[in-house]
Amino acid sequence: MKHFEKAGSLQRWVITLFLFAIWQAPAWAHAFLDHAEPRVGSAVAQSPGEIKIWFTQNIEAAFSSMEVRDAQGKQVDKKDSHLDPQSKSLLLVSVPALAPGTYTVAWHVISVDTHKTQGHFEFTVRPGQK
Question: What are phi and psi of 85, to 5 degrees?
Fold first, then answer.
């Protein structure tokens, strides 16, 4: 009798894990920030020529973009946000030579399965050494 009780308990655990996995599946479908260049929260010695953001899955170019703003909130990027032609999960935007300071990168994307995500991060351009 105890053997059947243990088997029933195991089945309940397997079913619970299966249901949990199914319930979590939609959350995996969103395009989340994987990594960025310059790195999130980093301090760089030189102004980057462009900002690159890689996502966890492919995104739709028509509904995805990013902006770079200085500490006063002024948009400083060249407004040419676009997907990399070689990688549909890489979003880029060009920036002019940035003065030392902290910059905020704000992005919003729609993944190929139509889920929208957005976020922001900062990086700092350090003053040059004299």
Answer: -65, -20
C-beta neighbour count of 90 within 10 angstroms? 18
- pLDDT, one tens digit per residue, over 68-118 is 999 999 999 999 999 999 999 999 999 999 999 999 999 999 998 889 999
**Closest of 123, 43, 34 to residue 76, by C-alpha:** 123
pLDDT in tens, 18-67: 665 555 544 456 889 999 999 999 999 999 999 999 999 999 999 999 99
Residue 93: is it exposed, middle or buried by C-beta count within 10 angstroms (0-12/13-18/19+)?
buried
In a 10 Å sphere around its CB, with 0-12 CB exposed, 13-18 middle and 19+ buried, how is residue 119 labelled? middle
pTM: 0.76
Q: How far is C-alpha 117 from the chain's CA centre?
A: 8
- State the amino acid at position 50 in one-letter form: E
Please state whether the peptide bond connecting residue 38 to the residue before it is cis, i.e. omega within 30 degrees of 0.
yes
* Residue 102 to residue 107: CA distance in whole angstroms: 17
* Sheet architecture: strand order including 50-55: 33-37, 50-55, 87-94, 82-84
